[in-house]
Amino acid sequence: MKTIYKTTLFFLMNLALFGCSRENVVDLDKQYGANPELPEAQNYLVPPMKVPRGVGWAENQKPVVAQGLKIEKIADGLLHPRQLYTLPNGDILVVESNSPGEAPTTTPKQLIANKVKGLSGKGGKGGNQITLLRPTETGEWKRYVFLKNLYSPFGVQLIGDSLYVANTNNVTKYHYVEGSTSINETGTVLADLPDTINHHWTKSLVASKDGTKLYVGVGSNSNIGEKGLAVEYRRATVLEVDVLTGASRIYASGIRNPTGLQIEPETNQLFAIVNERDEIGGSLVPDYLTAVQDKGFYGWPYSYFGQHLDTRVKQQRPDLVKKAIKPDYSLGSHVAPLGLWFASETTNLGDQFKKGAFVSNHGSWNRTPLNGYNVVFVPFINGKPSGIPKTVVSGFYSQDQKSLYGAPVGLTQDRSGALLVADDVGNIIWRVSMQ
Questions:
Q1: Are 62 and 70 in contact (CB under 8 A)?
Q2: Is the peptide bond before 285 cis (omega within 30 degrees of 0)?
Q3: Peptide bond into 286 cis (omega under 30)
Q4: pLDDT, tens digit only, all 435 positions of the chain
Q5: Which CATH class is domain 2-434?
Q6: Angle of helix 2-21 relative to helix 108-118, nearest 10 degrees?
Q7: What angle do CA 271, 272, 275 make, to 5 degrees?
Q8: Three-state DSSP string of the chain
């Protein structure tokens, strides 16, 4: 039996890699913005897969930054750092986490995908904790274990003296005292979140401007609903949670995996970055950045980037497709955006990075050549994305695309206005500032 298993595994991995060699992809520059070029969908027995092997950073090696900027390491040796959050006193919270590992592997295709992606180091064991980093006058950062025994945490928000943590199964509330370096209480559950299967386990989190609501990004339990829609209950959504009562409602739906939520500072509009569906080509479907409309429907699983029909879905819903909202801005296909941060007047990276959004792209696993593995800046005009993205941080993989040093995830800025980047392959926090 083991011999048959290994033979099947070897055959499928080679079939996937062969698929990479005959991929027909669109030029990257043609897939940015409001009107990306969308080729015809392709069908595969096994989708093409290409992932550089995770090797980590060599001593004194670091990412490349845009002209006029510099980058430094402020913390390392972390346990899969995923998200960052800046407290009012300048302390930085680092959420160390990964999937709870409960999603079953039911097909050979899933098995191969998990094996291939595992080679990258992106599957590293998460700490299920939050670490606090405190800047000192000498430029060093002290480290404290702030909150332990969490359950695949991701989003964090502070409202007044209440700290909210989005675990994969709930939003939990803790009492926070400014300047404290640890929280030892168990916390109280404010709201339950969908947590069966957990194909997408990350729960992004942001508070409304007035602090009365929390918005939670909940990803789908499948690629295109192939496991049945019963397991997609309240998934592929942004939920709105009332801070006083914990009551929640679906704020927007049809959003396959909203991995980052932020409030745009000029308009106070809720924005999301979204990981779209896979397995129909290296240039389909573009991941995106978009304003999230109350009661808006964004297509999943029936259509993509507006009303482009996904013919693989077994039970079609033309009534919903007619309502599908076209996203504001394509980030490119399979870039896997996982971090979102809006620049403001306090951002100190030069005038070119003053109005717009920083997006960290965790990187593709099913596309050749690779796409993502960088932090980009999307310019905004009048509160809306406009123009070609500018690369802020890159150099996360080798020139031959075989070795992966790191992968960017969560973003925030420190009190000086420098940009902080979590790297969950290198297990490092990077700080980007002016030269």
A1: no
A2: yes
A3: no
A4: 444 444 444 444 444 444 444 566 899 999 999 999 999 999 887 777 888 999 999 999 999 999 999 999 999 999 999 999 999 999 999 999 999 987 777 666 677 667 766 788 888 888 999 999 999 999 999 999 999 999 999 999 999 999 999 999 999 999 999 999 999 999 999 999 999 999 999 999 999 999 999 999 999 999 999 999 999 999 999 999 999 999 999 999 999 999 999 999 999 999 999 999 999 999 999 999 999 999 999 999 999 999 999 999 999 999 999 999 999 999 999 999 999 999 999 999 999 999 999 999 999 998 999 999 999 999 999 999 999 999 999 999 999 999 999 999 999 999 999 999 999 999 999 999 999
A5: mainly beta
A6: 70
A7: 160
A8: CHHHHHHHHHHHHHHHHHHHHCCCCCCHHHHCECCCCCCCCCCCCCCCCCCCEECCCCCCCCCEECCCEEEEEEECCCCCEEEEEECCCCCEEEEECCCCCCCCCCCHHHHHHHHHHHCCCCCCCCCCEEEEEEECCCCCEEEEEEECCCCCCCEEEEECCEEEEECCCEEEEEECCCCCCCCCCCCEEEEECCCCCCCCCCEEEEECCCCCEEEEEECCCCCCCCCCHHHHCCCCEEEEEECCCCCEEEEEECCCCEEEEEECCCCCCEEEEECCCCCCCCCCCEEEEEECCCCEECCCCCEECCCEECCCCCCCCHHHHCCCCCCCEEEEECCCEEEEEECCCCCCCCHHHCCEEEEEECCCCCCCCCCCCEEEEEEEECCEECCCCEEEEECCECCCCCEECCCEEEEEECCCCCEEEEECCCCEEEEEEEC
The encoded tokens of residue 302 equal 């029936």
